[in-house]
Task: structure prediction
Amino acid sequence: MIRQYASAGAIVVTTDLHQPRTLLLDQVRATGERQTVAAKGRLEPGEAPLAAALREVAEETGLHHTSYAGYLGQQAYHFTDNDGTPAAKTVDWFLFAADDTSTLARREEGFSAARWVDLEAAGHEASHAGFDEYLQRAADIVAWRQDRPLAFSALLDRAIREVADRAAVLLADQPEAGIGVCGSAARGDYVEGWSDIDLIGWGLPAASQLTAALTDLLNEIGARHSTRVSLHLADERGHDVRSAGAVYDMKLQAALRRVGIDLPVIAGTAPAIAPETVDLRRGLQLLHHLATHGDVRSNIARRQLSLACSTARTIVTNHDPDGSLRLPDVVRTLEQRWPGSQLGALLNDYDAFRRAGAEPASTAADLATRVPDALTELLDLASSDTVATTSPTG
Result:
């Protein structure tokens, strides 16, 4: 039998985007082994990964005022425990930012020093090779924000922390329920004043006092922080419990397949859901129809651009279920598959618009006018590609 452990931690970076540094801890373990690591530790009973990461950073480094900036994914590995028992561990890694670099290493756990090192060089300092992947993800997020520079959002930090803290209390007696954050609020490319905070809940019936209380809570938080905070509820198949339509079902199922990739649990427990697989061509047709025949709301620029992004990400996840859904990586995948596509060019321009802080607003309207033609071309390309790959040969 394999012993199971669940942990969480954070890569903490400075808020100075021009010369970003990250925090590493030098540790001497009880075995005498010396290592350089980032702050992390086991989840306490009933504790969600985000709360555990915040607690461990504060306990091990003395940093009590870090800001949530994104999710870097879940690391999984096997090892042999001290008593010789085979063991497996998961570590949910978050990205936190810190203004104050004053630290105090926790010596009772063998930490001898807390050091701020250049983010790009941190991989050479850290002891475990598997950690490099998460350092690189953190570096990619920082690099995306450097041009303007686009500061990490204090609003996002406050809203996510409040949702996590207060939802944890509401879900305390619901062992199969939980909430995760997805979209730009999880990927690290949240743009204040443009992006929404999108949450997914599971194990929660649509018509219940608990769901009503959660909805009221999110509306209150959104109003207080002047941002839109939305909660989509998934049933045991990953469908929208409010029967919002096929597009919502498809997007929910796609998001739930990425728990531990770019959807962290911030309150309650992880979902015990096996989402249905979405047929690629059917998914693209649904998104194309909504972009070209949608209601008035669908013609709002941000809505249209969101549909363009969803279409591209549907392609990427079909190609690589664990692939990065940050726009620069999505554009690269589209260009590799269909060089010169209108959608690739559109999303490249949209990414530049977001990196500039989503200004000026007129740019979004101009970009949105390109969406219907780009999706029509993409649907034709994908259909031809499917025919080409499924046709008999020889």
